[in-house]
Specification:
The complex is a heterodimer of chains A (about 220) and B (about 280).
Chain A (H helix, E strand, L loop, with lengths): L7 E4 L7 H10 L4 E3 L2 H5 L3 E4 L5 H10 L3 H10 L3 E4 L1 H4 L2 E4 L5 E2 L4 E7 L3 E2 L2 E2 L4 E7 L18 E7 L1 E5 L5 E7 L2 E9 L2 E4 L7 H14 L4
Parallel strand pairs in A: 1-2, 1-3, 3-4, 4-15, 5-7
Antiparallel strand pairs in A: 5-6, 7-12, 8-9, 10-11, 13-14, 14-15
Chain B lengths: L4 E9 L2 E6 L2 E7 L1 H10 L5 E5 L2 H4 L5 H8 L6 E4 L5 H10 L3 E4 L1 H5 L2 H10 L4 E10 L2 E6 L4 E6 H10 L4 E6 L11 H10 L4 E4 L5 H10 L4 E4 L1 H10 L12 H5 L11 H10 L6
The chains are: A alpha/beta (about 220), B alpha/beta (about 280).
């Protein structure tokens, strides 16, 4: 085992709680560091982009910390990146939150808000619940989801969801009260989930473990 | 799909897990960590840890318990009790919580909800309402139903949503700890009034109470303590870790007549039998 040798960086842009992401990493044997430093990111073997909160604020923080170009450069070079929740959304082109919010544009698409009403039905927003992930046509066997079953439950907490321009990157979809949305993506070295694997019990931890195994991090 | 979350609530005083009736008369039941671990293994969807005396003494001392509990428990943990400042929230999140639950400080200064949800994201901020019925009106109280505020529960609920909270816990203090069933009228009315998820709390005495509640109102989550705690105690020897708290109850090994304890697994099986979706 090459335990601890790989350099995994959890990107800290001062939004949200990184404790649980770090805990999950520790549990599967990755000794990840939490950092807001550009040089750490540039030196990383793999990146985790977590986050809870507002898209615009997150992008403003990433810019202020001068991390946008470093993240983009690493992803273009082929460094594995794992985006979680807001971290998934930030990878997209833009958000419709407050009109004009540009993202990292590593995946083409838009971030949209759940409606409060649909066909005269009230929809509770945020979507906070354990919900099922399922595949449309994409097999999971090469992805970090490989040991999961179709329709397994994951923990969601979000008001926005992503709409990729090209559906090829969609790994799973989820149905919230008859709204079907993309709940995870895979595109070359990018893997990202709308749900929180680190809050999704044993099945979620399996996703961390598989991601680490696929990318030779443990 | 829509699923309902089952959230065990762990009321904590000093080092002990406690339980009272109408949020009063606390009895020590054991170590919070043991209960949390057991509920995680049984398929709890989230955990709530509440420091029940924090507001009274203006302290929040749960940090060690949060860290111990959050470690290797890979489900969301919400922490409440005595949270007054942005720094309090920051420290609790750093200790390992995923969300915080506000009550007293939010009523004293409603703008605190706005400030906290802007800073940490709406989904991190849960606001609790302790409701007591008074001559046909429901009024919001603080400090475990002790302090009168005069605030109308329904007006306050709408304000909480407008201020940016991500979720709302509605506790019926009149029902809490009694095992007499939920105040379905109160909960249903709140649930219709706001568009954020509502967590119902107070009164579960048996599985059927939970089923009746969900059938009467499509709430997002149910928060339960007594029936899960007593089920765990009946099947395990629980250790009380210090002298703090009222230990008489545990020593006598009595039980509350109205309660029909069950495990989270039993409850979820019963929900599924009744076509109610859950994990």
């Amino acid at each position: 085992m090459k335990k601890g040798k790989k350099n995994v960086v959890i990107i800290d842009y001062q939004l949200g709680n990184l404790f649980s992401v770090k805990q999950a990493c520790n549990f599967i044997g990755i000794s990840a560091i939490v950092s807001s430093n550009k040089d750490d990111i540039l030196a990383a073997d793999a990146l985790i982009l977590p986050g809870v909160g507002a898209f615009i604020q997150a992008m403003a923080n990433l810019k202020k910390l001068d991390l946008c170009d470093a993240i983009k450069q690493k992803v273009h070079e082929g460094t594995p990146i794992f985006g979680i929740c807001l971290g998934l959304q930030l990878l997209f082109t833009k958000s419709e939150e407050f009109g004009d919010g540009n993202g990292l544009d590593l995946i083409s698409g838009t971030v949209k808000k759940f409606p409060n009403k649909l066909k005269n039905r009230d929809i509770k927003v945020p979507h906070i619940m354990w919900n099922q992930i399922y595949t449309q046509n994409k097999p999971w066997k090469e992805s970090p989801l490989k040991d999961l079953n179709n329709f397994d439950f994951m923990y969601f907490i979000h008001s926005y969801y992503v709409e990729p321009t090209n559906s090829n990157c969609i790994l799973t979809t989820t149905n919230y009260d008859e709204i079907e949305f993309c709940s995870s993506v895979i595109q070359k070295n990018i893997f990202a989930t709308q749900f929180h694997p680190e809050k999704s019990s044993n099945k979620g931890i399996t996703i961390y473990e598989n991601w680490a195994l696929i990318n030779n991090l443990i | 799909m829509k699923t309902v979350r089952i959230i065990p609530r762990l009321d904590i005083k000093g080092p002990n897990l406690v339980k009272g009736i109408h949020l009063e008369g606390l009895r020590a039941l054991g170590k919070p960590y043991d209960f949390a671990k057991h509920y995680y293994d049984c398929g709890a969807d989230e955990l709530l840890l509440m420091d029940v005396v924090a507001s009274l003494y203006e302290r929040n001392s749960l940090h060690d318990i949060i860290t111990e509990t959050a470690k290797n428990n890979f489900i969301p943990t919400t922490v409440g009790g005595g949270i007054r400042t942005v720094d309090d929230i920051k420290n609790i999140l750093r200790a390992g919580a995923d969300k915080v639950c506000l009550n007293t400080a939010a009523i004293k200064n409603p703008q605190f909800i706005r400030e906290a949800s802007r800073k940490f994201g709406s989904s991190t901020i849960v606001v609790a309402i302790e409701a007591i019925e008074d001559n046909g009106k429901y009024l919001a109280y603080t400090d475990n139903g002790r302090e009168y505020t005069g605030l109308d529960v329904f007006e306050w609920a709408q304000q909480i949503e407008e201020l940016g909270a991500g979720e709302l816990v509605i506790t019926s203090v009149d029902k809490e700890g009694t095992g007499n069933g939920f105040d379905t009228e109160l909960i249903s009315k709140i649930n219709k009034l706001v568009t954020i998820p509502v967590i119902a709390h107070g009164g579960a005495g048996k599985k059927e109470d939970v089923i009746n509640l969900i059938k009467s109102s499509p709430i997002s989550a149910v928060m339960i303590s007594s029936i899960f705690h007593y089920d765990y105690i009946q099947s395990n020897k629980s250790m009380v870790s210090s002298l703090e708290g009222n230990l008489q109850f545990l020593k006598q090994k009595t039980r509350i007549n109205k309660l029909n304890p069950c495990s989270i697994i039993d409850l979820k099986n019963e929900l599924k039998k009744n076509n109610i979706n859950c994990r």
